[in-house]
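Hi everyone,

Forwarding the result from last night's run.
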Amino acid sequence: MAEAEPEAPGSAPTRARAKDRSPWNWLLFVPLVVPLIPALFNADSPRFLGFPRFYWLQLAYILLGVATTTLVYQMTKRRGGR
């Protein structure tokens, strides 16, 4: 068995990335919590293209999750030499 080479200090970008404590990360709870509020989808109307509120809200929750994840990624990614 071959021995693993020890990593040089500062050469582990995954460790630095794991310590990211940006407040933007709290926004990732929004797409998790919003679908759990029953008052938002506990009705038949309004209908959109003939679909009850529950069904088109499921698509809206997906779009909310994508938009939130994109925003958090753009605000927390490292740029240039940072």
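The chain has three helices and no strands.

Cheers,
N.
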